[in-house]
């Protein structure tokens, strides 16, 4: 299942105009992944807000969920506590929640608790929060080549980003009956409706637009460790992405000064240079391992590091980067070993778990996304994966064993680390490895999943 699971949706296929050939790298066919006739955020203003359930309904749902995971004695205690809540503090708390929701009509009442749940937690990001999702391999095995696949995915991510920023990425819409609603007529009607009414027009077709507010955090984000509560940083117009190879960290340009995506040959040349020249440093100098730490400890060490001007500049480049591309040496067909690498990153030396997302491409060309969870959930990430997988499978911007002819635009990020900091990196690696030892992995490969038999499992 791991290597054969493809992320693909059909309901958006006819909602866009795809770009299929490139006569010039500066034209729209190369610069944009798609051209939706409905603007990306057209439905946002008219989306319905999440309703607050009745207190009694919340209590009932809580008890139903608890019953499956607690003993009979513990469930009796829960029942008594819920009854007390319903008759004492509950009604007043419900009243306060409704007042809070009424004051904050621009967002959902669960938004702030969501962020606090993640950002106030002092647990390490890997294992506890960061999930991963794997791409299906290329059907043409020759394209499962680390250099060409990493290059193609980096370019597709840039095309997705530019389409999103220009609001020509198709809106996220769930069609109950695509044959009736995923049509030119539907798109024309919705496009012509004012944005504050467009949701109602879509629902009339039994098509349900989904919230896309998290999409603006897909790129250029970093979770910065801070005492008690972390900070979400977001750079709106980064031109570079971050590459990690053998624990080294590089800044690689993906856009030019005018905001155009660089030619494929240049991106290809940058990654080729990194793969060719990177050598493994002293593992105790690999600061990526520090992102595996408990958050207060990481905050203290980061603050110590950025007192050095050179380190401060390198951290700024990391924080602002579009995303991080991790080029791994690992080549394995062992699913358990692969999962361990993608979830834990071994000792963390070639990971940066704080970035909005890590695009991991190993020595076999297996591509995977591991993402920091506080900024959003899997809906936005899955959409990114679906679109870029389809794009890289359709458009091979570079080919395997292609001659490197472009102009590399690479800067290696340097850090000044004293012996005390090296010891802290070593300790972080040891602690992370110890935590990962408690994990056990098992995989099942099933290739006959269909909408019909998946429904039968529910």
From TrEMBL:
Pfam families: Carn_acyltransf
GO biological process, one term: fatty acid beta-oxidation
UniProt domain Choline/carnitine acyltransferase: residue ranges: 50-448
SUPFAM superfamilies: CoA-dependent acyltransferases
Annotated GO CC locations: mitochondrion
Entry keywords, A to Z: Acyltransferase, Transferase
Molecular function terms, GO-annotated: carnitine O-palmitoyltransferase activity
Annotated catalysed reactions: 4,8-dimethylnonanoyl-CoA + (R)-carnitine = O-4,8-dimethylnonanoyl-(R)-carnitine + CoA
Keyword Membrane: no
Positions of the catalytic residues: 373
Record pathway: Lipid metabolism; fatty acid beta-oxidation
Family of the protein in this entry: Belongs to the carnitine/choline acetyltransferase family.
Name of protein: Choline/carnitine acyltransferase domain-containing protein
């Amino acid at each position: 299942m791991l290597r054969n699971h493809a992320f693909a949706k059909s309901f958006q296929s006819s909602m866009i105009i795809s770009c299929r050939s490139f006569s010039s790298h500066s034209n729209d066919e190369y610069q944009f992944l798609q051209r939706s006739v409905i603007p990306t955020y057209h439905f946002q203003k008219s989306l319905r807000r999440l309703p607050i359930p009745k207190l009694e309904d919340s209590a009932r749902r809580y008890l139903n969920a608890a019953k499956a995971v607690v003993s009979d004695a513990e469930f009796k205690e829960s029942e008594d506590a819920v009854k007390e809540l319903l008759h004492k503090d509950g009604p007043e708390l419900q009243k306060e929640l409704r007042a809070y929701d009424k004051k904050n009509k621009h967002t959902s009442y669960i938004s702030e608790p969501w962020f606090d749940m993640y950002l106030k937690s002092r647990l390490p990001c890997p294992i506890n929060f960061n999930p991963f999702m794997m791409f299906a391999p290329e059907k043409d095995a020759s394209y499962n080549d680390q250099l060409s696949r990493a290059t193609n995915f980096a370019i597709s991510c840039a095309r997705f980003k530019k389409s999103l920023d220009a609001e020509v990425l198709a809106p996220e819409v769930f069609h109950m009956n695509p044959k009736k609603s995923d049509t030119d007529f539907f798109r024309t009607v919705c496009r012509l409706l004012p944005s504050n009414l467009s949701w109602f027009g879509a629902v009339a077709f039994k098509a349900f637009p989904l919230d896309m507010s998290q999409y603006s955090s897909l790129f250029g984000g970093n979770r910065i460790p801070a005492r008690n509560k972390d900070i979400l940083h977001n750079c709106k117009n980064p031109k570079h992405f971050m590459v990690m190879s053998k624990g080294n960290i590089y800044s690689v340009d993906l856009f030019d000064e005018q905001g155009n995506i660089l030619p494929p040959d240049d991106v290809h040349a940058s990654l080729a240079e990194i793969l060719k020249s990177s050598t493994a440093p002293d593992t105790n100098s690999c600061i990526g391992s520090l992102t595996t730490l408990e958050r207060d400890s990481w905050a203290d060490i980061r603050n110590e590091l950025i007192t050095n001007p050179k380190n401060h500049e390198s951290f700024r480049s990391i924080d602002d980067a579009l995303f991080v591309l991790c080029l791994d040496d690992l080549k394995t067909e062992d699913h358990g070993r692969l999962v361990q690498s993608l979830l834990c990153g071994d000792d963390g030396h070639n990971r940066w778990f704080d970035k909005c997302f890590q695009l991991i491409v190993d020595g076999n060309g297996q591509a995977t996304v591991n993402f920091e969870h506080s900024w959003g959930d899997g809906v936005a990430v899955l959409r990114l994966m679906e679109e870029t997988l389809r794009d890289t499978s359709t458009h091979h911007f570079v080919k395997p064993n292609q001659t490197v002819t472009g102009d590399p635009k690479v800067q290696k990020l340097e850090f000044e680390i004293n012996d005390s900091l090296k010891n802290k990196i070593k300790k972080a690696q040891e602690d992370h490895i110890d935590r990962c030892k408690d994990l056990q992995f098992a995989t099942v490969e099933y290739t006959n999943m269909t909408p019909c038999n998946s429904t039968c499992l529910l």
